[in-house]
Amino acid sequence: MQLEFTEKEMMLSETATLFQKRFEECLPHINKIEWMNAIRAFDVYNVGPNNIVIMTDFSATLNLKAIQTTNSSIDAHAFLHNFVIISNCRHASVQTVNQNGVTELNVLSVNDCDVLQNFGSTMSKGGKMTM
């Protein structure tokens, strides 16, 4: 369901309690995302020159049903499929000057990155894709 903005008067203590509750719900998701990003960075940095890394994200149950369909351009279900392809990994030495004015030599991972995205409608929520 699409979320709609609404106005509501609340005491400051109620607002703080609501934010605390939402924060506690979000924290495990944030930790999971940080862990996934760390593992992804490790994989990307260590991919060999003859290898590729393919990351994909797929969602087929986007519920884009608007509350008011007369003024909405989106009134259906959809799928979103992302492919990120990392290839041709190589390492480059880069000289930088740190905050103390000391020149440092850093090795950076450089690669080619292609992003393919498919977005389209589905017959129903969780239904078969049509492209």
Mean pLDDT: 79
Strand order, main sheet: write it out.
1-2-3
Beta strand count? 3
Domains, number: 2
Percent range of helical residues? 25-40%
Rg over C-alpha atoms, rounded to the nearest angstrom: 22 Å
Approximate shape: flat
Alpha-beta content class = alpha+beta
Low-confidence stretches: 127-131
Write the element-wise H/E pattern from the N-terminal end onward: HEEE
Question: What's the helix and strand layout?
Answer:
Layout: H1 12-46, E1 53-63, E2 77-97, E3 103-121
Antiparallel strand pairs: 1-2, 2-3
Care to give the gist of this entry?
The protein is α+β, with helices and mostly antiparallel strands. 27% of the residues lie in helices and 39% in strands.
What keyword list fits this structure?
alpha+beta, 3-stranded antiparallel β-sheet, 2 domains, 39% strand, 131 residues
Description:
The protein is of the alpha+beta class and 131 residues long. It has two domains: 11-46; 49-131, no CATH class. The protein is built from one helix and three strands. A three-stranded antiparallel β-sheet has the order 1-2-3. A hairpin with a 5-residue loop joins strand 2 and strand 3 (103-121). The longest helix is centred in the N-terminal third of the chain and has 35 residues, at 12-46. It starts with 11 loop residues before the first helix and ends in a 10-residue tail after the last strand.
